[in-house]
Predict the structure.
Amino acid sequence: MKKPIFAAALLLSLVAGSLASSPALAVESTPPPPAQATGTADVSTAGAETPGTATVTPSPSATTAGSPQPAESVVPAPSEPALPSEAPSPSVTPTPTDSPAQSVTPSATVTPAPSVTPSPTVPPAPAPVVVKGAIGVKWRAMNGAAGALGAPVANETCGAGLCSQTFKGGTMYWTAATGAHPVLLTAGHTGPYWHANGRGKAFGYPVTDEVAVPGGTVQKMSTGRLIAWSGMGTYQVWLRGAIGGHWNTLGAVSVLGLPVSKETCGQRNGGCYQKFAKGYIYWSPASGARAVRPGNYAKWVGVGGLPGALGYPTSSETCGQPAGGCVQRFQGGAIYWSAGSGNWVTKGGIGARYATAGSTRSGLGYPTANEKCIPGQCIQSFQAGYIGWSTAGGTRIYSMTECAKLNNGRSRYPTYGANRVLLTFTQGYGRSYATNIYCVRVAGLYVADWKTDGYVGASGFKAPGVPSGPTRNLYSPTGSYSVTEAFGLGNPGTQLPYRTLNPRSRWGGNPWTATYNKYFESSSWVGWDENMWYFATRASHDYRQGVVINYNRPNIVQDAGFAIFLHMNKVPTAGCISLDDWAVVDYIKKSKPGDRIIMGTYGALFR
């Protein structure tokens, strides 16, 4: 019986072993590991494998020993705190091996193995920040982390041909066309303005460093905006705009200096302007962009500036004029300058007449003052004359004469506000041939209405303060005298009181008489009295037309002199002034009570 039992037991044993290795039964058992790893090692579990049992494939960024590397600066990332050690996984409880004697029951319960506790995940160390390429070269040239930019806070980023990298102290930008340039966040002057006023959206990226220029610093941006700093603040100039483009064309900082205001629009006729250290640039659709330098600007503003008669400038200041002068034209006139005259404005009717005459190339030369006006009259002085304007007569050019001495204080005798003054002078004592200039006051300035020759007393002038004496001595007095009345054979049309002469007309010449140095009528001609009718009607017609010069009148000094007239018959006289007929008539027609005659030698009349 033992052999059959043994055989049965052996058979049962073989059957039991075959069932124990079947997957359908050993559902909780752990499969054995493969003989050798074939994939890349995970850097998060590096070191977990048994040395010599795994082959690791290098990543694309791994460095092959001995290969050349680009220049770069690596700034290590901050170190992570140490993580706790990984705990070993609990051992798996093996399924108990059935005794060969145990019978296999299909419904037997299999005890599951305990679960495996996963190991904690270790985060990878942060990648170091790298400063490389052209940005790195520029950064290191700026003293790297110790310089104005400081340490990097992010790696370089690129797109559409533009690279940038952020640092603690600003941002560095690079393009192939412009190279690498920083915009500083805190250092310098232009960078803070860029950061505070829109950054790249408003200005674009820098195409230059911030550079020093006379009076401040500038930095140019890709949008054509130039950020400029000076002691008067930080402003921008748009180089692609009309004003900024004109500033740049003129010579930029070297000519007009740095901007000291922003560009301001909404001006007259849709215009704009911007102020610079050495002038202004104004622009309008009609005039374009033009610069106005300080000297011209002051004169322009003095006559009303942009809202005034001149309006916008239509040209830049153009030099190389006669005598080294310059001119700048405006919509309503011009400003002229020369070393001898200064800056002055011409405009309106006077300016038009000056231009027609040839302006600086005319005989007038450069203006020496702005025009002066009163209701109905204007006058402007030039180096060699004047241009006057009136509502009645339009414009007229006046030559430069001794009338100007009545304006500049170089006359020794006052005019007492007379509207017309006749200047009669010789070149010295003992001379009778005289120059006569009829000065008329236009808008407060005396100018020459006409100039002609004539005569005074045949013995010439007495010195100032010395009476001329009796007419038989043939002297003329020196001084400033009013005119109050005219006389002759017929009124030519005058505003002076006019006396028509008759056969009884006399002028008293006998001292210590009631008629001395006065008009009276008599049928006789006694002593030194003058028969006015005789002198008016004789062939030389001396008194055909005449004017009374109030010498020794109204306070009469006996025997000091009498009958001092302005009259016709241009020859040496007994003390009067004689002129051509036309001059006497014109004088009478234009004179009014209170007008004056100033007479004497040149040296006695003028300083």
DSSP finds eleven helices and 33 strands in the chain.
